[in-house]
């Protein structure tokens, strides 16, 4: 199936899903740049990430349902990591590469969907990845990307989770993370 090129906010996107992701970022107040820079990987392969998120200092690739072609994203993340000199995943200077999948609903134990539609985001790291979300920092006000193993604001470094706390202890952070995703309708593409 071919993606439908779509214009949103004066920007021509390669797919309706990418345009919907940009609209979601606008809704939660996250600044984004669409395809701002391409890279040549060490094997000569060219790679153009879908988004750069300046407040989160993160690259984001959008993939639709059942799209498993993530090898370039993983190689890009590994090469950025190797070039960064970061010591570990807790190092806020480490590059962050995110993979956004098609939005989904929560599903109960019987397979029935419920609740609001949400954007699923995973942090791509060397040796694996983990769930990630977008949140607003209580100190600096930036909308940033946070992960279980990197729970500090990537803008100012403020810890957003205390000893023994979980995602549910993040208060205003959860308000942004849980913002429902809305697919754009055709009339919104102008």
Descriptive account of the structure:
This protein has 190 residues and is α+β, with helices and mostly antiparallel strands. It has one domain. Helix content is 17%, strand content 31%. It contains 3 helices and 11 strands, in the order E-E-H-E-E-E-E-E-H-E-E-E-E-H. The chain has a 7-stranded mixed sheet with strand order 3-6-7-8-9-10-11. Strands 1-2 form a two-stranded antiparallel sheet. The longest helix is centred in the middle third of the chain and has 14 residues. It is globular, with a radius of gyration of 17 Å.
Give the integer mean of the pLDDT values. 75
Strand order of the largest sheet: 3-6-7-8-9-10-11
Coarse structural class: alpha+beta
How much of the residues is beta strand, in percent?
25-35%
Taking pLDDT < 50 over at least 5 consecutive residues as the criterion, the unreliable ranges are 163-178, 186-190
Order of helices and strands: EEHEEEEEHEEEEH
Main beta sheet strand tally, sense and closure: 7 strands, mixed
Write down the domain tally: 1
Specify the oligomeric state: single chain
Shape: globular
The total beta strand count reads 11
Helix content: 10-25%
From the N-terminal CA to the C-terminal CA, the straight-line distance is 23 Å
Radius of gyration: 17 Å
What is the count of helical runs?
Answer: 3
Can I get a quick summary?
With 190 residues, this protein is of the alpha+beta class. The chain has one domain (6-184).
């Amino acid at each position: 199936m071919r993606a439908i090129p779509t214009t949103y906010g004066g920007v021509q996107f390669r797919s309706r899903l990418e345009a919907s992701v940009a609209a979601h970022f606008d809704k939660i107040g996250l600044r984004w740049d669409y395809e701002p820079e391409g890279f040549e990987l060490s094997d000569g392969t060219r790679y153009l990430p879908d988004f750069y998120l300046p407040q989160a200092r993160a690259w984001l690739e959008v993939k639709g349902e059942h799209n498993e072609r993530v090898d370039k994203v993983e190689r890009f993340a590994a090469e950025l990591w190797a070039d960064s000199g970061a010591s570990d995943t807790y190092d806020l200077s480490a590059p962050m590469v995110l993979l956004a999948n098609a939005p989904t609903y929560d599903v109960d134990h019987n397979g029935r969907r419920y609740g609001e539609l949400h954007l699923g985001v995973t942090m791509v790291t060397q040796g694996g990845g983990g769930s990630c979300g977008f949140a607003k920092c209580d100190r600096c006000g930036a909308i940033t990307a946070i992960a279980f193993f990197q729970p500090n604001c990537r803008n100012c470094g403020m810890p957003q989770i205390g000893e023994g706390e979980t995602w549910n202890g993040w208060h205003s952070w959860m308000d942004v993370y849980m913002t429902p995703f809305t697919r754009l309708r055709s009339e919104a593409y102008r």
